User: What shape does this take?
Amino acid sequence: MGAISLGLTVLGLLVDYFRWTQLTPMVLAWAALLGVLVVFAFVNFQAEGLTVLDALARLWERYPWLPRIEDPGTTGEDGAWHLDGESLRGPVLATWGVISMVLWGLAWLWRLVLGAGAPWPLRRKLKVALGAGAAAWLAFVAIYLLSSETFHDGPVRWLLTFAALCALPVIVSMYSLTVAHALGRLSDRLAEGVVEIHPA
Assistant: This one.
């Protein structure tokens, strides 16, 4: 019984970690969209943005322990950057694994401190993703309307571009949330099996 219980516990932890590997693309997709939104706002409000960047640069220089950008060794003899799939695959997979591990650890810390709580239904999670996509689209539109810059293309094309940008993380979220939801149910079933073997 002890070996079975230990096996189920380890398997449940592995399934839970794999669940976060499927949620990581969603987190990165929304982070990328937020970055695009910040850049778009900076381009359209350069005076305010330069003031903020100058303050951040001064703050960064004040603390030498903050990370600095160094040459990763991907430059050729001509001084140009040379990146290919082989050179990127390793760092990308390692970063994916590390981010998943960090998110997995934070999730466990959240459960230990605040408790597990009732899981959200999948439909509610998807509605939140759709709502976030709509809010991001409205933010793009607001920046577009408030900007004093001259846009060379018509408003319809820009509105469609904003919609496409916001749709990408929503689509990724639909995949990530659906797979993670199924893996979460599997992890719960494994936990229930451990409880049945060792009832309180």
Observations:
- Residues 89 and 95 are 10 Å apart (CA to CA).
- The helical segments are 2-44, 46-62, 85-114, 122-146, 155-197.
